[in-house]
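Subject — a protein and its fold

Tokens — whole-number codes for backbone shape
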Amino acid sequence: MGVQDLQSFLEGPNVTGGSVPVDLLRIARGVAQRHARQQQRGGKNAGSQHSATNKLSLVVDGECCLDRLYGGYFSDWACGGQWNRMVQFLAVLIQTVQVSHIELAVFFNGSLEQQRMTEWIASQQEVRKKINQVLKHINTKGTPPPKVWWTAPVCLRTCLRMALRHLNVSVLCTMDDHHQEVIAYCRENGFHGLMADDGEYAIFDPPRYFSSEHLKLTYKGSLETKEYILSEVAKESRKDPC
């Protein structure tokens, strides 16, 4: 099994207890309660600036959750993007996050990464196939394309960066190696975990690894996703190394 297959392995039923559904708002409340107890005992954490606060701090790989930050599926993406609705969704999401004492640092890929050029070409070919299918569907059916063909509208990354900065969210852009810079920022600044959808991050063993693909802000007031329990994945891998 290669690195590219690791995320599928994490998502599959192969590992008992390898992933569990979680509510990030509930986890944030737990972090705040532990911090309050530490304050009552008079003890101060000598670690990083984030581990000493009452906020759940997460690094988010924006490249892995463009559809989630866009607000889920809107049929208008095929027409160039529904930006007002995206900003409206982001405002609700970020307000919920900030009120619940969650701090986010969102990364976008600004690096050329010559060593990944073959992967980039393959991904662009897949996008081209989807676009051809979308145009054919619109021409023949005259209805919005199905969700499975969702493709990031042009300028989505630029609009997301502007909107997130407007909402006082830390936005960063990688310069050399995207994956290494994201995980390095997470560790060096003492963040509690990483939210992404790329098996390569699991190799770096982040403090906690949450799924960006399953991120969902519900009407009942929860922010749900999956957490990958990498210790269980490692146990299963040792049993079946292939």
Observations:
- The two ends are 6 Å apart (CA to CA).
